[in-house]
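seq as requested:
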Amino acid sequence: MGFIRKYKCVACGYEADIYEGKGFMGQTIEMVSCADCHSVQPLVVGGVIGDAAPSFRTLVGRLCLNCGSEHIIKWDGHTCPQCKGNMEDMGSREFWS
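struct tokens:
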């Protein structure tokens, strides 16, 4: 079981839903930052999905879900992709599986 947390940039107000933990099929959600559309996006990695489709085992060769760009990196957990300000956890939490 995992959580979805809402993060917000203190400088520009950009908001993103950040996934943490593991799903019921063993998958994790890796948060990536896209240099082209300046967003934070969730990508499914591993678990049963990774066993069936090897391309889902890592972030290598994956694309941004928002714009299709290959210019993604693992999100560092605090840098706003739009203005490079600091993003903070807003305290809300929902379950995902």
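Residues 13 and 55 are 34 Å apart (CA to CA).
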